[in-house]
Amino acid sequence: MRKQTLSLAAVASTAALALSACGGVSTTTGGDDGGEYPSRSVEMYVGADPGGSSDLISRQIATGLTEELGETFSVLNRSGSNGALAAAEVQQAEPDGNVISVQNASLFAITPLAVAEDEVTNIDDFDVVGGVSRDDYVLVTNAENPWKSIDDLKGAGKKITYGTTGVGTGAQLACALTYESGAIDSEAVPFDGGAPALTALLGNQVDTACLQTGEAIENIENGKLTALSVFAPERIEFLPDVPTATEQGLDVEVYQYRFMTTPKGTPQDVKDTIWEAMQATFETEDYQAFNEQNSLTPMEIPGDEVVDALESDKQRYADLVEEYDIDLGDAS
Amino acid sequence: MSDERTTARRAGEGDILAELEAEVAHELEEQRPPAGGPTYQVVAALVTLAVGLVGAVLAQGYGLGSLSRPGPGLWPMVVSVVIVVLSLALLLVGRGLDDSERFSRASVLPLVGVATFIALAFLIPTLGFELPALGLCVVWLRFLGGESWRSTIVVSLGTVAAFYALFLYGLRIPLPHLF
Amino acid sequence: MDAFLDGFSVVTQPGNLLYCLIGVLIGMLIGVLPGLGPAATMAILLPIVVTVDPVAAVIMLAGIYYGAQYGGTITSVLLRLPGEASSVVTVFDGFALAKQGKAGTALGIAAVGSFVGATVSIVALSLTAPIVAGWALDFGPAEYAALALLGVLLIATIGSGHPVKALIAASIGLLLATVGRDSFNNSQRFTFDSLQLADGLDFVVVAMGLFGVGEILYNLEERHGKVHVPAAVANIWPSRKELKQATPAIGRGSLIGFFLGVLPGGGAVMASLAAYATEKRVSKTPERFGRGAIEGVAAPETANNAAATSSFIPLLTLGIPANASMGMLFAALLVLGITPGPQLLEERPDLFWGVVNSMYIGNLLLLVLSLPLVGIFVRILRVRPAILAPITALITILGVYTINNSVFDIFVMIAFGILGYLMKKVGFEPGPMVLAFVLGALLENNVRRALLIFEGDPTGFVTRPISGTILALFLVAAVFPVVQAVRRRRAATTVPDETTQREDVLR
Hints:
Distance between the termini of chain B: 71 Å
Strand content of chain C: under 5%
Helix content of chain C: over 70%
Number of strands of chain C: 2
Structural class of chain B: mainly alpha
Strand order of the largest sheet of chain C: 1-2
Largest sheet of chain B: none
Strand content of chain B: under 5%
Order of helices and strands of chain C: HHHHHHHHEEHHHHHHHHHHHHHHH
Oligomer: heterotrimer
C-alpha cells in the first residue's frame, strides 16, 4: 500500500510540475473575443423566482432582445435578498455585455433601509442602460373579509396581519407606511415573493397583503380579492375604481420600476446596441400587449433619468421611514 | 380504535416487520466489515453534542426574540437543543450499537480518493480540467482499483475524451479547459 | 381533462420520449449496480440534466427514480445482492426461486408486478393529485410547518438506521439549512463572515457531497474485486398458475405501495417490507415464504414501484418532498426555475401532466425492456466497479462545478463528501440529513410566519384542524416506536398473555 501511495505521489507531483508551466486556460467553447456584440449567448440574471413580475418582464425583454440581436438571451433566476444576489452576478461579471440584468428600483431605493451598510447594493456599481416599466403596488384583502377601504381596517378591532413579498421590498414599505401612518395595529408576515403571498391571501391565511398589481389583478377582477388602495401618485389605469392612499388621507406613495443594467464600465456601443434593441422591443405589439396584460405602465426613459429617479426616491423613502419610525430591517 | 381485529392484525404485522428487519439486517451482515465498537459510538455522539452546543451558543448570539416576534436565533436554538438532547440520548443508548464500521487499512483508499478530489479542485482553474482529470483516472484505476496499466490508460483516455466531448461540445458548458 | 391529454402530447414529443428512455435505462442500470442509489445518481447527474429543457429534465430524473426500482430486482434475484434498499426483501424468495432454476419466473413476475403496481399508482395519482392541489389554499404556514415536521420525523424513524441517529442527522440537516441570510430580517447566521456562505449552502452541492461523493468514497473502501456468479436465467414468462397465484399479492401490493408512498418520509423501502409482511400474514401457507414463494417476490416488487410513483404526490401538489430522491427532484425543479407546490398544476400544466404521463410511458418501456435486457445487465455486473468509480467521481466534480462555475462549490461538496463517508462509517444515514436540509427553510419560515400570525401563541398550531391533525399524526409517529421498543423489551423479559397486552399498548 505504502509503495503504491508513494509512486502515486510521485506521478502527481511530476504531472503538476510539468503542467504548471502551461497557461492559457479558457472557459468558453467558441471564439467570443472581438467582433460584434453579442457574439455569444447572453445571460440575463433575474433576482426573483419564476412566475413573478420581475421574472416575466425579464423573460419578455429577453425574448425581444433575442429576436432583435440574433443571439440567445437566456434568463437565469438567482432569487434571494430582493435581487442582491442577481445584482452581484452582474457586478462581478466582465463588462462586455454578456451578463446583464433587468433590476428593480426597490433594491436600490428601499432595501438599503432594511439591511446592514455593507450589504447595500449601490446603483453606482452598475451602468444603467434605460428604464423599462413601472409596476404599482396594491393593498388587497380576501373578498370574504368585510373591509372595503383602509378606514375599514382601522375599525377591524383586531391586529391586522399583512403578507409582504419579502423583507426590504416596496410591498413591505407600502404596507408598513400605510399601517403606521394610519395608526392601525398590524403585523408583517414576510413570504418569499409574490406568488406565495398571494396563495396565502387567497387561502385567507393572512388578513391583507401588499402585492404588485400584475400579481393581484386577475383575482381582483374575478372577485376573490378586494383591492383597498393603490400607492401611485394618482389612480392607475388598470384599477380605475381603486382609490390611492393619498386620497384616503395617507401620505404613502410607493412604486416599483425596472430598468436594464450592465456591469460598470461596459462599452458605450454595447449599451447602445442593447438600448436600441430594447426600444425596438418596446414598439412591438407583443410587448405592449404584455404590458397591458400584466398591468405595467411603460417607463421607457434613458438611463440617467432612471438614476435621478432612484436617488430622489431613496431620499424620500428614507425620510418617511424616519418620520414614522419604521424598522424594515426587523421584519416583525 | 374501534375495530379490534385491525388492531390485532396491525400488531401482528408490526411483529413480522420487526422480524423482517432483523432478517434483513442479518442478510446484510455477512457483507459488512467488523463493527467499530463503543468508542466509535461515543465519539460520534460527542461530535454531534459539540455541534449542538456550538449551534446553541451562536444562536444565542443571533438574538432569540420572542414567540410573537421570533428572532433570527430562535429556530437554530430550538434545533441545537434538540441535537444536544438526542446526542445525550445516543450517549446513553448507543454504546451497544453495532452499526458502525471499523477503520482498516483499506480506509486509506478513500483518503487518497479525497486527496485526488482536492487536487482536482485546485488544479481545474489553473490547468483546465483535462490533465487533472486524466491524473485522477490514472490514480483511481491503477492505484485504487488495481487495474492493469493497459486498461488504466485506455479507460482514462476514453473517459477524459468522452467528458471533453460531452461538456464542451454536447452541453456547451463553460468548463475551464486547456486545449 | 384537456390538460391531462395535453400531457400525453408533451410526453410523446420525440425529444421527451428519448429523455424518458434514457432516464429509465440509467435508472435500471444503477438499480442493477449495487452502490449508487437513485438519489445519489440524480444528485450526480443534476447539473448536467438541468441544461436541457425543464420538462425533459424532470421526465428523465423521474425515470431514473422509478427505473431503479425495476433494476434493483435483478441483482436481488440473481445474486442475492439487493441493488436497491427497496428490493431487500425480494432477496428472500427471489434468490430461493433462482436456486430452484426459476430465476426467470421471479424476474418475470417482478416485472409484471412492478408494471401493474406503478400503473395503478399513476392512475390514482392522476385522479387524486388535482384534488390534493385543490386543498392547497387551506394550507397556511401552520399546516406547511406541521407537514414538514412530520416529514422530517417520518424519514428519520422509518429509514433503515437507528432512529436516534437518524433524528440527529435530520436535526443537523435543519441546522445546516439556517446557514446564510435569515429571510425575515436579513441578518447573517453561521456564515463566519464568509461571502460565499452568505447565500447559504446550495442544496445540490450538499446533496452531491453527502450522497454522491460520500458513496463513492465509501465504495472505494469496500467491495472491490468480488466475483459474483449470477444464476442462469431461463424462461422468463411466468406460467398461468404462477400468475394466478401472484395476482392477489400484486393487487394488495399496489394498494399498500400507493398509500405508504404518499406519506412524507414513507416510500419504497417501507412499502416493500409491509407488502411482504402482509402476504406472509394472509397466506395459508406462510412456511413457503423464504423458500421460493412467488407472492414473496410479487408483493414487494409491486409495492415498491407503486410507492415510488405515489411519492410524487406530495411533491407535485404541496411542494413537500417525501423522500431523498424526491428531494433531489425538488432541487432540480428549483434549479430549473420551477417552484414545486400548489401553483404548479395551474401554472405549469404541461410540466405536471407531462411528468405524470411520462410515467405511464416509462413503465411501459420498463416492462418491455427489462425482460430482454436482463442478459445485458447480467453482463454489466461483470464490469469491475474499479472502472466505474473514476467515471462517477469525475461526473460529480465537473458537474458540481458547472452549477455555479464555482470552485468553492467543489470544496463544499468534498467537505460534505467526507462527512457523508464518516457518517456511513459510524452508522448515520445521510438520507435524513439531506431531506431535512431541503425542508429546513420551509419548516423554519413557516413556523415563524405562523407564530407571527398567531401573535406568538403556539396553541394555534394545534387548534387549526388540518395542522392539528397532522401534529396528532406526528405524535403517534413519534411515540409508536418508543412504545414498540418498550413492548419488545417487556416481551423479552416476561411472557404474559401477549395478545391482550399488545392491544392495550396500541390503544
